[in-house]
Structures are given as structure tokens and as C-alpha cells.
């Protein structure tokens, strides 16, 4: 009796409070004022925009056997990294802990553990980039910086994340999941290349332990006209104010104040300068996000374009086009796109107007490159100081084809980051 | 208890208001979700297409995997045509034209079944096991088989067998073209989905109103030729048929880039001689 006496006033109070809160939420939510028409907006342009998880993807997969021997999984019929990534969608209840820090022994013990696949990013990324690959399952994990992912092929509750700079190892515990698909990837049609993962000048790198066979390629390029980029990038409210200046092989388009687009017809490069205020953010995740936005704005073909490196000092993010899992380098060391934030009112995007599109049959046989050890020794004998050498990569050299301006040749070569510049092994050896 | 009654009336009213407000709140959330998700904008366009009296069946949203592939035009058919029995083969411009001395009767309702069996016989057709029946290209008097390639098939007159039937359901002759050494030029990559391909075609204004999308197929079509080599790309081949007509038009969408491939494009753009 007593209870029912208070029931009705109580219920009434709750009902009034609920209706008040809902009213406030509805009135303050701007979505309320959107009309339904806006949802059927015009679809995006025809250019294929690749998602973040495609661009910020690991670029190399290394398998460590039961006996500890290691090999790079080279793409042949399938993209090995993509296949491994496909198996990473089902991690449940991830929990992360720091296993060790500043210990090289622990770092290499985890990295080189038997029965595992290691996915290598080209440069440091943040947890957010990895989160995009694992279908958002890692969204609650702290935004650590990472370089490598180690997936044990015989332990379904653990994976490891490695950060090179201070040799940090993170362990991620997940709910038990099937490893069948991961092991299936290893049986797919691919080429393998014996390798080992160790230190060079105190930085972990992948050594290739035997001579490498690589296939030269011929590509048909996709050549965009200047107009395409002018209309995409300079198309602000008053397009009448765009002026053009020509100087030798340079054409400079600009609106009156804040945007400038320069084309170099000789080396087929373009530079877009944006002097409008920007966020000027400094941390890795934000820079990568801003850079990705700029990349998609360009409208350049993004097929096989991957994140290559991030330079902390000048906030430059570079992207390269990959062939068979190896990056392409031009003679000046440039790749496909680089974006750079100078200050809060200056951003610069450098990009290539020609990009490889269709591979063509080539009857050239495989080319043999020396192992990493041999290559380094030869450089040393040639008078280069290995101390100044920071990174080593297998890559392809971009060369114009002599028969047609629309064709390029991609020749395999070693690339080393020497004195802050990417140089090819061949060019270094020919220098003296 | 007058006060108690008023209380009850108030309670009922407020609960009604709550339900209404909650409904509105939920609708708002859906609307926001609409704005972000890309899949929904796709279905909006498909709806638009249906409003334009374009008949489309169920479309798949699945992205497939495909390759750039190449094959070589060769004289292998000419070199091996000596082994063909009961026919008079002729090799004309990379095509083998053959007339059967005695016509072969095939199943009236299902000619495919009979021909599939015949194709395993290498004295009847060379490399017969490398071809697959194409329902879409075949008619009752003209049965078409396409050459297989990397888990799909090639839609090209340069890699095809066309059987000609007479009115008695007998094969009287056939034409065969063959590409040798079919291989992938690069590892597989993801293609656009069937829905996306159709939407792009619609947005290029290539599907007139009042038409039916008869069929769509993902196959390889020729992108360019370099000397004897042919380069093929995965293509969404979309057959559209104006209503009140039986004429079918084929449209092609590059399954990697989503660009439309015009018929005239085939040799022109990338012919090495015209590029210099």
C-alpha cells in the first residue's frame, strides 16, 4: 500500500525528466536541421580512392620457419601482405602490455621467434594505422608507435608489436581464434627469398642472405594532363582569378594569393603549394591523417601506392608505388607523392605526373642482385663509410623507355639511404 | 481520489511524449549514419536507376580479385592442325577455320553438353580443354566458347571458338583462335564490385532510360597489343537491351579503375607505332 503510494509520482518524475533530456538532445543536435535531401549527394569522382588501410599498410612479410630460418615472401600470383592482412579481422578482446623496452635481446627473441610471420611497415606508424587493418578491433588500445607486427603461426592468443626506435616489444593478448587461414597463406603460390633480420648501425633491418633474383618490368604509364590537376586543386570559388606564367619548362598556375601549382614538363613533376591556414599538427597520427587527406585530394591514381616514410624533422610524408612488393625510385630518389607541412600557413605537395599503370609482358629474364652482406662489403671497398648508411632496400629504378614516351622500364637494384638521400647501389658504384 | 487520477493522466501523456521523442532521436541517429556510410549512397543511385525505368536484377557488392594478364598470338594452331580428323582446316590470319566433312549432331536442348564432351578430343579441336562455354554470347545457331584464363575467361575474338550449327542441330563448321602462354603480369588486385561498375556506367550516361540490364560478367578483355603480345585487363562486361528490342549492346568497364572502355580505344591509344 505504502509502495504504490509513491509509485505513480516517482514514475511521473522519471517520465518528465526523460522527456526533458530527450528534448534538449534533439534541439541541440545539428543533425536535426539537416534535410533528407542532403543524403543523396553526388557520388565521388571516378578516380579510385584507396582506403587508409590500403595506403598505410605493411609492405613486406617475412616467415620464420620451425628451424629458425627466415625468408621474405615475395608477391607472385598474390600479394602476400594483403593475404596475411585478410586473416587479421577477427581479434576479440585485445589487451596490450609492454613486454620489454630497450632490450635488443628481447626484441630479436620476439622478432625472430620460430613459426611466425612478421609484417614490416616501411616506416613508423601509429596504432591507429594498424587499427584500420584489424577492422577497428584495436580502437581501445593506446596509440603507440610501431614498426612491425609479429604473428605466431602456432599461438592463437598472442601477437606482438615492435617499435624499432627504443626496441620496445608490446604483447597483444586476444581471444583464441583459428590460425587455419594464416597457415593457408604460407601455402599459396609465391616466391621466397632467404633472409635474416638483424642490426645494421644499431637499426634493425632485413638482410637478404643469398643473391636475389628479381624480374625487370616494363610499364605503360598513366599520364595526366596539367588541366586535370588545375581543375581539381585550384578550383576555388572564383576560378576566374587563376593566372598562368610560363618559364622554360615550368608552367605556374596560381590564384591571387593562397594556392600555387607548378608543373615541370621536363621531369614530369608537379608541386602544389597551399598557403591557407592548416592545423599545423605535430604528432604522428595527426600528420599522417592530414597527409592522407591531401593525397586523396590530389586525385592521382593510387593503385599500389603505399606509405613509404615519415621524416619527423621537416614533417615530410612520402609515398611510393610498389611493384611485386618493392618500391620504385626515380633517378633523383623521389617516389610518387610527398606531402610536407612547413608551418601553420604553408603546405607543399610534390607529385609525379606520370605513374605506372599497366604492366607489360617483358621477355627480359630475371636479374641477379648480390646479397646484402656482399653489397655492403663492395660499397665499403669502394670507399663509402657504412656508418653513414641508415637504411637498405631492394627497389626498382625508374627509367624512360627509349621506344616510347608512354613506356617506362623498371630495373631492380639495391637502394641505400646514404647521407640523407636514397641512392642506388649501381649509381654509387659508378661514381668513382 | 481526484489528484491521483490527474497524476495518472499526466503519467500517460508524458510516456507518450517520451516514446515520440525517442522515435525522433533514433531517426536522427540513422540519418547521421546515412551520411557517412558509402554503401547507402550506392543503393540510393541504384534506386535512382530504377526510377529511370532501368531494369536491374540483384547486384553483388563483392569485390573480386583479378590480374593483368598477357598472351601471345602464335602459329601453334597451324603447326598442329595436321592432327585434326574429319575436317578441312585452314589457317587464315591467326584463325583456324574448319569445315566438318560429316556434320556432328548435338543435343537439341543442351548443345553445350555434347560439345563439352567433344572438346576433350584433340583430333576434333586443338586445346579444347582450355575453353569454356559462354552462355551469354551463344545463340541457338552459334555456340561460343571462350579461352580460360586465371580462373576466369577471355572475351575476345582472339581467344575463342565459335561453332556454327545448322537447323538440324548439327555442327557444320567452327572458327578457332588461340593465345599461347597466358600468364599474369602482376599479383592479383581487388576489382570494383558489380554494383559499382553498373553505377559508373550509369553515371557516364551510358545506360539510356527504359532499358534492361540483361547480364553482367567479369571477364578479361583486350587493353592493348604490342607486336604479337596481347594485354588483357579484368573488365565488367555489361549487356544492356532497350525495352521492346532484342538487340543487345555490350558496354565495358575497367574493373580496376572504373573507367569506361570504348570500343575504338582498343588499339588506338596504346599502339606502339602511334605513340612515337
Automatic annotation (TrEMBL), chain B:
Regulatory protein YycH-like domain segment(s): 40-256
Transmembrane segments: 6-25
Keywords: Membrane, Transmembrane, Transmembrane helix
InterPro entries to which the protein is assigned, alphabetical: YycI-like
Keyword Transmembrane helix set for record: yes
A Pfam family the protein falls into: YycI
The keyword Transmembrane is annotated on this UniProt entry: yes
GO cellular component: membrane
Protein name in the entry: YycH protein
Amino acid at each position: 500500500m505504502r509502495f504504490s503510494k509513491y509509485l505513480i509520482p516517482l514514475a511521473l518524475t522519471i517520465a518528465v525528466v526523460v522527456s526533458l533530456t530527450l528534448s534538449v538532445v534533439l534541439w541541440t543536435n545539428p543533425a536535426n536541421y539537416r534535410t533528407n535531401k542532403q543524403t543523396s549527394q553526388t557520388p565521388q569522382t571516378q578516380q579510385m580512392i584507396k582506403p587508409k588501410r590500403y595506403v598505410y599498410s605493411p609492405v613486406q612479410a617475412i616467415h620464420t620457419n620451425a628451424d629458425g630460418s627466415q625468408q621474405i615472401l615475395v608477391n607472385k600470383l598474390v600479394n602476400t601482405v594483403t593475404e596475411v592482412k585478410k586473416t587479421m579481422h577477427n581479434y576479440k578482446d585485445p589487451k596490450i602490455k609492454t613486454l620489454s623496452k630497450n632490450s635488443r635481446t628481447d626484441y630479436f627473441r620476439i622478432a625472430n621467434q620460430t613459426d611466425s610471420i612478421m609484417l614490416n611497415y616501411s616506416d613508423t606508424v601509429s596504432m591507429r594505422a594498424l587499427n584500420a587493418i584489424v577492422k577497428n578491433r584495436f580502437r581501445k588500445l593506446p596509440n603507440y608507435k610501431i614498426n612491425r607486427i609479429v604473428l605466431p603461426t602456432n599461438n592463437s592468443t598472442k601477437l606482438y608489436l615492435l617499435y624499432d626506435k627504443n626496441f620496445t616489444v608490446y604483447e597483444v593478448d586476444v581471444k583464441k581464434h583459428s590460425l587455419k587461414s594464416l597457415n593457408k597463406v604460407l601455402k599459396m603460390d609465391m616466391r621466397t627469398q632467404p633472409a635474416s633480420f638483424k642490426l645494421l648501425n644499431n637499426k634493425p633491418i632485413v638482410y637478404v642472405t643469398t643473391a636475389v633474383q628479381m624480374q625487370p618490368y616494363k610499364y605503360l604509364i598513366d599520364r595526366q594532363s596539367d588541366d586535370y590537376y588545375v581543375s581539381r586543386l585550384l578550383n576555388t570559388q572564383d576560378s576566374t582569378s587563376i593566372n598562368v606564367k610560363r618559364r622554360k619548362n615550368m608552367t605556374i598556375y596560381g590564384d591571387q594569393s593562397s594556392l600555387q601549382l607548378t608543373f615541370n614538363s621536363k621531369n614530369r613533376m608537379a608541386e602544389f603549394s597551399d598557403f591557407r591556414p592548416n592545423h599545423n599538427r605535430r604528432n604522428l597520427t595527426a600528420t599522417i591523417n592530414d597527409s592522407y587527406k591531401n593525397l586523396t585530394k590530389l586525385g592521382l591514381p593510387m593503385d599500389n601506392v603505399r606509405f613509404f616514410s615519415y621524416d619527423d624533422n621537416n614533417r615530410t610524408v612520402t609515398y611510393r608505388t610498389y611493384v611485386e612488393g618493392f618500391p620504385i625510385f626515380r633517378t633523383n630518389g623521389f617516389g610518387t607523392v610527398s606531402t610536407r607541412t612547413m608551418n601553420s600557413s604553408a603546405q607543399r605537395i610534390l607529385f609525379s605526373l606520370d605513374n605506372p599503370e599497366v604492366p607489360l609482358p617483358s621477355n627480359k629474364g630475371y636479374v641477379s642482385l648480390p646479397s646484402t652482406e656482399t653489397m655492403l662489403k663492395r660499397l665499403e671497398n669502394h670507399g663509402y663509410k657504412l656508418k653513414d648508411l641508415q637504411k637498405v632496400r631492394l627497389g626498382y629504378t625508374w627509367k624512360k623507355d627509349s621506344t616510347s614516351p608512354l613506356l617506362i622500364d623498371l630495373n631492380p637494384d639495391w637502394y641505400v639511404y646514404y647521407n640523407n638521400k636514397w641512392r642506388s647501389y649501381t649509381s654509387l658504384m659508378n661514381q668513382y | 481520489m481526484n489528484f491521483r487520477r490527474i497524476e495518472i493522466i499526466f503519467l500517460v501523456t508524458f510516456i507518450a511524449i517520451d516514446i515520440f521523442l525517442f522515435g525522433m532521436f533514433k531517426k536522427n541517429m540513422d540519418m547521421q549514419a546515412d551520411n557517412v556510410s558509402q554503401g547507402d549512397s550506392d543503393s540510393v543511385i541504384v534506386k535512382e536507376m530504377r526510377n529511370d525505368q532501368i531494369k536491374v536484377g540483384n547486384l553483388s557488392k563483392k569485390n573480386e580479385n583479378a590480374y593483368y594478364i598477357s598472351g601471345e598470338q602464335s602459329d601453334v594452331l597451324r603447326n598442329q592442325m595436321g592432327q585434326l580428323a574429319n575436317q578441312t582446316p585452314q589457317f587464315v590470319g591467326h584463325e583456324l577455320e574448319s569445315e566438318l566433312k560429316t556434320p556432328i549432331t548435338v543435343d537439341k536442348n543442351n548443345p553445350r553438353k555434347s560439345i563439352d564432351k567433344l572438346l576433350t578430343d584433340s583430333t576434333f579441336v586443338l586445346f579444347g580443354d582450355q575453353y569454356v562455354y559462354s552462355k551469354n554470347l551463344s545463340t541457338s545457331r552459334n555456340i561460343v566458347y571462350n579461352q580460360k584464363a586465371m580462373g576466369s575467361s577471355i572475351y575476345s575474338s582472339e581467344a575463342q571458338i565459335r561453332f556454327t550449327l545448322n537447323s538440324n542441330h548439327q555442327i557444320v563448321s567452327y572458327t578457332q583462335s588461340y593465345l599461347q602462354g597466358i600468364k599474369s603480369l602482376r599479383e592479383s588486385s581487388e576489382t570494383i564490385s558489380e554494383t559499382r561498375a553498373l553505377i559508373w556506367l550509369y553515371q557516364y550516361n551510358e545506360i539510356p532510360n527504359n532499358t534492361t540490364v540483361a547480364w553482367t560478367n567479369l571477364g578479361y578483355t583486350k587493353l592493348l597489343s604490342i607486336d604479337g603480345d596481347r594485354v588483357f585487363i579484368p573488365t565488367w562486361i555489361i549487356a544492356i537491351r532497350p525495352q521492346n528490342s532484342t538487340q543487345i549492346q555490350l558496354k565495358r568497364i575497367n574493373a580496376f579503375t572504373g573507367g569506361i572502355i570504348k570500343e575504338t580505344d582498343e588499339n588506338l591509344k596504346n599502339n606502339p607505332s602511334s605513340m612515337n
